[in-house]
Each structure stands twice: as structure tokens, then as C-alpha cells.
Amino acid sequence: MAEKNSLPKRVEVMGVPVDPWTMAQTVGRTKELVESGAFAHLIGVNADKLLQMCDDPWMDACVRRCEVVNADGASMVMAARRLGSPVPERVAGVDLMAELCALAEREGYRVFLLGAKREVVERTRDALLGEYPGLDVVGVRDGYFGEGEFDAVAEEVRDSGAQVTFVGITSPKKERLIERFRELGLTGAYVGVGGSFDVVSGAIPRAPMWMQRAHLEWLFRMMQEPGRLAKRYVAGNARFMRMLREEEKRMKGEASR
């Protein structure tokens, strides 16, 4: 595994910080953080997260505080390459979750699953234990609670002794919860995995491999839930591409001076 000092330095892509790391480097850095007893917020950025940062100063500050910021979206990898700050690969939340579960099984880390519906998170636990029989899952909790319950949830996670907590809750609630954990002095790695519990549990299918390779996973997700996701993906992707073109023009103008 890569040592911290050998990891590529964080870059900015369209004003968004990104750690230009491979999956293996991300897992290695997470291992270092867990074993140091530190607090670590691992977040993935994609086109949607970039737009949230543009519109919400709190989210912008949150992402910049995170100990690990991966490119969880083909859009960010593509933009980075076009703007001259190459990111080696996409580190998708569901894939990172699998790699970190394998790490936790090997190293004996205690794991907590937080988010989704109760039956979904329980099926996620069962699926993970089927794949990683030595995994020490010390707690599960659904994601149906309000901000007034954040402190109680924090105590549940703290009391479990978890060293790696996967948080499968929608944004920005997910980020606000994890940052509250930071404020309360919790330790361990907190990994935002979005809708990964739905995929791992079998509640929704993941895009076929050919769509993943063609960077069309967003289209597959939109087809699964068009009512909820069509506006976000169609309008959001169009706005993202406009911003990318503007940034390319700006950089070309500076280079020509």
C-alpha cells in the first residue's frame, strides 16, 4: 500500500478539491487513518456534488474539510483530464465499500452500517456477511431520523466501537450527520456511500458492466427512478457541461496571454 507521503497531492477540478488516487491508494490511506485513531470523513464528488458546492457554501466548506475526496463520477474524471489535472480512475462509492469491507475483514476492523430502510440495511448486512464471512458488523441502523436525533445516533455509533461506518443516506443529510460526528469527537472512518445499500441488498440493480464502462451508469439510475432523478441528471449534467466549457475557455484565454 502507498505511504501517505507518496500519495499524489490534492488537485482542484473546476474549483472542487479531488484526491487523484487510485482505489488501492484510497484503501491504503483509509487503513492509515483507521489505525491512527483519527476521525476521517471520506466523500465522493461527482457532477451533482459539484453543483451542490456551487449553490451551498456549507457544502463547499464541508467537502474541503474531508480527509479523503474521491472522484465518484465519470464526469469528474473526464473534466479533470480535459482541464489538465488527470485523476487516475473513478472511485465509486459501492466499489469502495466492497474494498473497505475486504480490508476490514482482513484487519479485524469493526463495521457499522447506517442508512436506508431497516429491511434494506439488514439485507445489506446479510449480503456483506455472505461475501465477507469474517466481517465484524457491530451495528446497523436505518436512516429514518431527523437532525434532532443526530446526537443520539452518534452515541449509538460511538458505543458500538465501530472503526469504519458506512453511511447510506442522501445528501446533504449524510454530510451534516458525519460532520456532527466530527464535532462530537467521534473517531474512525465515515464513508458516504449514497445508495450503495440499495445495490448491495439487491433492492435495486446496478448498471450492466457495459454501461459502467461507457460512463452511462447515471443513465441507468435515471431509468430506474425517472420521476425522482430525471431533472437532477438532465438539468444537472447540462449545467455541469456549460461550466466545464466556460472553464476550458477561461484556461485557454489565460494560456494565450
Description:
- The protein is α/β, with parallel strands linked by helices and 257 residues long.
- The chain is built from 12 helices and 8 strands.
- It has a 6-stranded parallel β-sheet with strand order 4-3-8-7-5-6, with helices on both faces. A two-stranded antiparallel sheet has the order 1-2.
- The longest helix is centred in the C-terminal third of the chain and has 30 residues, at 226-255.
- 37% of the residues are buried.
Layout of SSEs?
Elements: E1 11-13, E2 16-18, H1 23-36, E3 39-45, H2 47-55, H3 57-65, E4 68-71, H4 74-82, H5 93-107, E5 110-115, H6 118-131, E6 136-141, H7 150-160, E7 164-168, H8 173-183, E8 188-192, H9 196-201, H10 209-213, H11 217-224, H12 226-255
Helix pairs in contact: 1-5, 2-3, 2-12, 11-12
Summarize the structure.
By secondary structure, the protein is α/β, with parallel strands linked by helices. The protein has 12 helices and 8 strands. Helix 2 (47-55) packs across helix 12 (226-255).
Main features:
55% helix; single chain; Rossmann fold; 15% strand; 8 strands; six-stranded parallel beta sheet; globular; 12 helices; 257 residues; two-stranded antiparallel sheet; alpha/beta
**What is the 3D form?**
globular
Termini separation: 43 Å
What is the total domain count? 1
* Mean pLDDT, all residues: 92
Instruction: Provide the CATH top-level class.
Output: Alpha Beta
**DSSP summary, beta strand count:** 8
What is the CATH third-level topology name?
Rossmann fold
Number of helices: 12
